[in-house]
Amino acid sequence: MDYESSNWIWDGVYYYPHLFGGLMLTAALLGLSTTYFGGIGLSSLPYMWSDLGLFHKKKLEKKKRVRVYMDGCFDLMHYGHANALRQAKALGDELVVGVVSDEEIIANKGPPVLPMEERLALVSGLKWVDEVIADAPYAITEQFMRSLFNDHKIDYIIHGDDPCLLPDGTDAYALAKKVGRYKQIKRTEGVSSTDILGRILASCKDGNVIEDNSPRDAHEESHPSTGYISRFLPTSRRIVQFSNGKGPGPNARVVYIDGAFDLFHAGHVEILRCARQLGDFLLVGIHTDQIVREHRGKHHPIMHLHERSLSVLACRYVDEVIIGAPWEVTKDMITTFNISLVVRGTVAESDSWLKSGPDPYSVPKNMGIFKMLESPKSITTSSVAQRIVANHGTYMKRNAKKTASEKKYYAEKVYVAGD
Ligand SMILES: *[C@@H]1O[C@H](CO)[C@@H](O)[C@H](O)[C@H]1NC(C)=O
């Protein structure tokens, strides 16, 4: 059994775009650095660089690692993106992901909900991503493609099965196809950014996020007023594909953190990274839809339990999730999972639990194993939703157009075999 404990926490490596001149390396070194990076602090990273480069070359000489590239905007990143990148990674050994710049997104489809920094944090936080290129072009240019092949040593460019046309109507991947360095993955997931944007807009009335905490009607659907129908069909296979499939090793220190993790965002990635650093195994409890609804109002959560679970599972700092965790951290849970430490971020959606009702953390607090973690970022699910609401008109219009084209996609969708 592989009990290798995880020294692969890469403190903020992805905050070095300036140092690496636009090229951001995150887990670039993932395969080879497990032992090399253990315990090395942030500050020493840049100096390690040349050594690692050498080591990398030696390794390459032994066995050529296939490097694949995929790009995207990754705005309102969801488990569909994560799944596409998982499939892309399976086509090679190292996955390099290009994240389209804010400017290019603005020029091509209007302002992104998430700025570059947050989109990078989300993409870098995915366990299948080895390297990230910031500020990729929206439509792949011939020049950029050559730089991918020559400078970034990319073997194959991967794209979904939707056609990608350049402004002049030609196929953006024509060159890559011609030289036999193009591979395609199938779009299968029942979610899109358009869909999520639609859910958020639907949960708003007249440009306001509905923040009612009115008692929940037990028979109500989660989005009763909007008629929204999810196309998400959660399968056990997808959960297995996203899982690490490993329990904590012997003597592992298990850290537990729970929450809704709705609209998985950069703040979540950061707090999970901090939590993971406090132990050897991070167990994440995802609250049920009903619990989230009780605490945040009937239009929440935006993403359902299984969707939220996949987003959390896709995060490189997470070892295991409880799909539908109780509100209260019980003595039994602590024993069952051998939890050494229960943590909670200082930035949370709502503090109402503090004021009313029993403290869900009273057991770990009494045991002396509870710790508040300073949240590195102030982003919350509602702050992300608020950005959309603030740009209500723009997003409404954009979404109407995209919803129409997605309807067409679903109407013409055919069965595709494979992952
Ligand atoms: C339970 O966790 C502690 C760390 O807090 C560890 O020392 C102990 O070995 C773990 N128990 C088992 C059976 O792994």
From TrEMBL:
GO molecular function: ethanolamine-phosphate cytidylyltransferase activity
GO BP field: phosphatidylethanolamine biosynthetic process
Reactions it catalyzes: phosphoethanolamine + CTP + H(+) = CDP-ethanolamine + diphosphate
Pathway as given in its UniProt record: Phospholipid metabolism; phosphatidylethanolamine biosynthesis; phosphatidylethanolamine from ethanolamine: step 2/3; Lipid metabolism
Residues in Cytidyltransferase-like domain copies: 69-197, 256-351
EC numbers, comma separated: 2.7.7.14
Family annotation (Pfam families): CTP_transf_like
Residue intervals passing through the bilayer: 20-49
Name of the top EC class for this enzyme: transferase
Entry annotated with the keyword Nucleotidyltransferase: yes
GO cellular component: cytoplasm
Keywords for this protein: Lipid biosynthesis, Lipid metabolism, Membrane, Nucleotidyltransferase, Phospholipid biosynthesis, Phospholipid metabolism, Transferase, Transmembrane, Transmembrane helix
Superkingdom of the source species: Eukaryota
Record family assignment: Belongs to the cytidylyltransferase family.
Protein name: Ethanolamine-phosphate cytidylyltransferase
Protein's organism: Erythroxylum novogranatense
Lineage: Eukaryota, Viridiplantae, Streptophyta, Embryophyta, Tracheophyta
